[in-house]
Amino acid sequence: MKERNSVSSVKRVLINCASQAQVYGICIADKVPEVGRDMCLKEFLALKTCMQNSHIDKIKKEKDILHMMQTRAGSSGSDALSHAYIQSPPIRCNIPETRGLLYDDGNKLLLSPTGDRVLSWKVGAPTERNPPNSDLIGEGAVLSIRYSLDQKAIAIQRSNHEVEFRNRETGMTFSRKCKQDSERILGLFWTDCPTCDIILIKTSGIEMLLYDPEQNGLHIMEAKKLNVNWYVYTHESRMLLLASGMQCTVFSGYQFSAAAGIVRLPKFEMSMTKSESNSKPVLSSDDVHIVTIYGRIYCLQFDRVGMHINVYRFYRDAVVEQGSIPAYSSRVAVSSVDNVILAHQLDAKVVMLYDLFLDSLSPISAPLPLLLKGSYGANSRSKSEESESISSAYEGMIYVDSWNFLVPDLICDVDNGLVWKICLDVEAISASSSDVPSILQFLQRRRSDPAMIKALCLAITRTLILEKRPISVIAQAMDVLVASYSNSLRSGSIPSATQNTGNNHATDSGVVSEHSIVSTDRAKSVIGDSSSKVLIHSPSTSDDDVNPEESEEPAGDKSLKSSVPQQMASHGANVAISPDEMHRFVFTLVEDEMSGDPSYLVSVIVEFLRSASREKLKLNPDIYLMMNHLLARSNQHATIALLVSNKIIEPSKEVAMQLVDLGQQNFKIRKLGLDMLRLLSLHHDYVSILLQDGYYLEALRYARKHKQTTGCGKMPEVSARIVA
Amino acid sequence: MGVSSMAAGSDAMQLQLCVFDLRRGQQEGQELDKILFFYPSDCPFLTQLSLIGLCEGIITFTRIFSPEAACEVIEAEKHSHVFYEAEPDIWMVLVVEKSKDDEPVWRCEALQGVLKEVHSLFKMFYMSIYALLDKQPSGELARSHLHSFITDYLSDFQLGKKVQMPSFRDSLKERGTVQMLTVSREVALEVQSLITAISSCCNGCDSIILFQDLLVSTTLPPDDTTNLFSYATLRLTPHALSSSTSSSWSYLRKGNSTPNLSNLTLLNEHQSRSLDASSLGQNRQISSIPRLLQRDKWSKGKDGFLVPNFSGGESTPVVWNQQTEECKYLCVYQQKGITVVMLVPVSSLANGEQELVQVKKEFLENVAQRVTIVEQKLSRGWGGENAYHVSGYRYLLIDRDRSVSRATPTGKVTTLTKESLLYLNKLREEVDIEKWRWHRDNPDQEKELEVCIRAKNNAWVIAKVTRGKELYMVLEKANETLLYATDAVEKFSNRYCEGAFSMEY
């Protein structure tokens, strides 16, 4: 296919650049046989340019035709045709002799058993291309493998009745078997719950086991008897859902978190639409997804008959159905990327995006295909070449049957031994909507690539102002940005000069442990009020805004939190835009570009000040200087006086001096500045200006009155001026 | 003196007000043509002419020495004549009777303030007297406009059958200034944002916002603000609309009388007949002038907009912006205590008033909700009628730079004795003269002045003028030492004037 492509491209070049080629050919023919360097250079350059252009043309055309599967020739998101993409290159795990790929989400390990060993790749580690680790596991069938969370032991499920435990240090093994006839092992996972290490799920119930590496054995801490058809567990949420009943729609839920211990959820039933015939559909484990979004835990249940996805949210003492989102495919997979839910409609080969932050179940954007995107070098030519090679290398590999969606944002292509990571194209998402305030809101909630998102937010805001959009829209946008900033200020995720909590500089692990401590406090209260069945409580006093996830929650909310802290960007790169940045990167830049009547910009700044005052943010005087400057430029001196007198322009030395300066043209403005100096008790400046204006007596009286603060140095100066 | 003839009239004659044009009626026998307005209009022409003759003579004489500012006042034995050159060669003269005893009851500047105000308001609606004279050289147009306008204006000063000019009792008030509501920064931002919202729904029009009788915010230049503010407090604010209920309150005046216009309408006919220049057609024209200062002509519509109900003319009044030199529709929206006055440029509306309906609709859809919110915030933060009363003090604070004043509420001023007020009136008169002289000699510098008087009734009467700001104060029942008085001023200054008057040590 690649060869055919290159042939056709040569052909096209010859067609498109026929005249240039002819000129060049004639030139060469004239000079032959005296062949020399740079011969017919001019003609050659013309041909070369033409050829390059037509090559680019070709790429553009191809892109148009194959836009569904083809990558774009640039990394800019403005012409994107999709809102989510998978990043090339994928992790390759297709080593010969391996038997399938397994995923251990507790440790984020990709596992591939081979013969008597297991190869493991750490997902998300920077050294993805490094050779895998290898562990000896001995011969035998492998149904699943789970490394312990400290990675000192490996649990290998050998059959439906046997689990083997292997100490990685000593190599010692032992097995745990269950009754052959009455029960089956469905699976197991390691937990960081304080009371147990391993949860073993069997058809007859669950066992909570403590692993003892010294004695090389297991102790049963607790066992719960119940019929289990299948189970769903994600380490991210620490939630275990056990399905039972004829249709597998009755669920028992447990959360095993490090902080909260074991939280048992009340039994609940998921609804299933009845098919027309009398047969009752059975819910499959593939159709139930646990998703962790903004630290909240949701369950998405795909109803194949009703063709919709039911959304449930887990609270401490209740499971509440949130509504449903439509499905457009007979097979649906769910991922979550940066707190956005991606509903993959596998048959339609499109993905839909949902942001459940405000419990709104409407999609962010239209259904669009998943894109394949390469990581490009700086050179634009290599970009296009690479995009070609990528599209050819992985063509037809999107939404294949062998794709296995892993929690939260990975796709494992079992057949090809590839693992893809799903990413969001926030630029494309933001370009797709005209509702700027909600786009900004969406962007401010994102946690991945903060620097880029911040730049995007700033650019959006600038465009908003430059396009002179209605002030009401600007006001909403300002509200969003300022609220987001003050939120992150309060939560301590960005250091602030005024509100330094001292916890800001905690390392990542520090944040985790701090979070855990908080959760411990919470857990106690969970158990304490477990008898209460009231869904919405007033916020308890222990609900301080300590961690960012919680501070984003609406008040009065007692939702079940995932105990894993979200991937918070380090505080140095937060998406929130500080007032200072707003001034420097929005207002100043916009002022340069905007010409004419500055009153629009003044109104914009007033809206910003309003948002800032609502959040009680302290602002740098620079912004007031700018306002005064703008107003003075349009001779709105009365407005300056009004704004100064009602303190919209907050008094500061900088502002006062500027007013004094502006007062060269307008004496009343000068007096405003002077009054401000007096108000701020800037005695020295006040007296100096009085002297400059020739009010010697006043200056003397003032200096005398405030001599203790101005120091005695003032008086000689005053007298000297008077003498002069 | 020619004036004596008027004085001989009767007790009923306590006040005369005339407007005349020195350029008109130059020929003998046509002197009547000079007169553009005369109050009372039933005054015999001979009396009118003799007053104007006197005034003209004095003006011509004093101009020899002071061509710029000819004559301010004539103090006669029984009357004061206050002059105001409204437009070049168009003079307004107010004649008031002096009281029997020696104490001056009037303050010249305050009376001039009345003339200035009525002329400013006139200009706001009709551009200028000149413009009207230009439009119709015979002067009938100008006469009829002035007649209805000034008589309507004077109706506010009517006390029973008398017209009561501002006297010493009003010396803690300053005409031609704006009274502002003090708001917190948060509310100020809210209001500022509201102003933007308003201007975006009426093609960038100007607007002023009042709460009760106080100004909250304005986008107009100071002169236009002052005029519109005066008009609003006279006719538009909730208080002005319900002027019959005398219990309500206003900084500017007490609406303590129902207008007695019966004689004024009579005068109308009288004047047009007597001037005999008018034809039937002009009579009709006179009756069709929208009398914008007439009382009770604004009423609140169901949608919250005030509905003008002037006989004749366009239904929506048009005002003339001095600064921008533009005609603008006066559009008033009111919700409880808040009054939003919008000035929609006539030129911005292609279809005139039909389009104004559209503007109003847009306002109701997009802004009215926010007005409600702001109103709630303002009324929550408002201290009521006596919000700016400072116990123990009776004060008037003027910021000349911004044309803003604040004073002890009227109700509290009445507790002062007559003596104190008379002293204050006298002191203010002195300060006015002192300031005027200083300004004449040092046009670039501002007067600094401080007077503390211990009055016969043991009250302290204090005036302080510093850098464009003025403070007048009466302290009754105060301690007898001067130190006490200055201390009281210092405290007041620090507390309520941001230290503007704290210059002592």
From TrEMBL, chain A:
Pfam families associated with the record: RMC1_C, RMC1_N
Span of domain Mic1: 561-709
Source organism phylogeny: Eukaryota, Viridiplantae, Streptophyta, Embryophyta, Tracheophyta
Gene Ontology biological process: regulation of autophagy
Source organism per UniProt: Carex littledalei
InterPro entries noted in UniProt: RMC1 (IPR040371), RMC1_C (IPR009755), RMC1_N (IPR049040)
Biased composition (Acidic residues): 542-554
Region Disordered, residue ranges: 494-514, 534-573
Amino acid composition bias (Polar residues), ranges on this chain: 494-507
Domain Regulator of MON1-CCZ1 complex N-terminal stretches: 102-216
Annotated protein name in UniProt: Colon cancer-associated protein Mic1-like protein
TrEMBL record, chain B:
Gene Ontology cellular component terms for the protein in this record: Mon1-Ccz1 complex
InterPro entries per UniProt: Ccz1, CCZ1/INTU/HSP4_longin_1, CCZ1/INTU_longin_2
Residue ranges occupied by any CCZ1/INTU second Longin domain in the UniProt entry: 207-368
One GO process term, biological-process aspect: vesicle-mediated transport
One of the Pfam families matching this protein, by short name: Intu_longin_2
Domain CCZ1/INTU/HSP4 first Longin: 18-126
Family from the record: Belongs to the CCZ1 family.
PANTHER family on file: VACUOLAR FUSION PROTEIN CCZ1 HOMOLOG-RELATED (PTHR13056:SF0)
Protein name, UniProt field: Vacuolar fusion protein CCZ1 isoform X5
Organism this protein belongs to: Carex littledalei
